[in-house]
Specification:
ABC transporter involved in vitamin B12 uptake, BtuC, globular, two-stranded antiparallel ribbon, two-stranded antiparallel sheet, mainly alpha, transmembrane
Amino acid sequence: MTATAVRDETTKESRTMKVESFLGRHAALMPTFAALAILLLLFAGAEAFLRGDFITPRNISALLLDNAYLLVLAVGMTFVILTGGIDLSVGSVMAFTGILGAKLLADGLPVVIAVPAIILGGALIGLVIGVLVQYFNVQPFIASLAGLFLARGLAFVVSLSSIKVEEPAILWLQSTRITVGSWYITPTGIIALLAVAVAAFVLHLTRFGRTVYAIGGSESSARLMGLNVARTKVAVYVISGLCAGLAGLILTAYSGAGYPRNGIGTELDAIAAVVIGGTLLTGGRGYVVGSMVGVFVYGTIKTIISFMGAEQSWMQIIVGALLLLFIVVQRAIVARSEGRR
């Protein structure tokens, strides 16, 4: 073997070792990268199939506009799932806070009181769930299921029918377009992006965020390290409820009305988006930015199927199959990355 061949072989081995080392150190990022790659592939495939009519400023801007409420729900759900919990109540809480806000405004209550009231209402339901989980040892699935029925029942108590919102300040959140060329964003989209930014800061640059990850990794170890596990576990459900209340406001502004049947099944959409974005259901690993990517993947899938003119039943089947595929691929990437360590 010549000296040149030896050098080439050594260089190749060195590059392989560097790649393996990178994957080993950043295994937690791999599912998020996979979700981002899937999103780009969806864009490319839709653009090719629709012959250049998909990737337009209008369609991409509408992706955030149409999924702003889901993005806020996914932010709150990320906190809960990172601790190894689950929150099935967020769709019903969103419906309750939305119809409550519409009712309060219809009765003449000022916006400065109605908006904090509905957000606080969502946080209170989250507090009830968190207390049940932490202090009564109720499984998160059961506790949040109880929260689901509670919130949905309260929504029907407020009103059995839709209540139109005529408050200009609420409608402004959706009707206003901040444009840059052909691109636009609404205040609801800005609120959703701010929620992501604040959540990312809290999770990665505060003691509370580090405690959330520690609990998901090993709750017993987190206790031994002296971390305040009880307060943190209750707090993540409060955050999830608060985000659901904020999503109720966004959805009410988006639709122009509150409706007690809103959000049926939306909690599953939020969970799916979070998992697609790389957050493991077992907790301890994931990123809120990944959840945002997951929401965009989920929204893009629905948009593509809508462009194709598929019936609603087929839309659900296709979305379910694609979500299952994405989750399996991401889990395989995690397993392979951990195997390289």
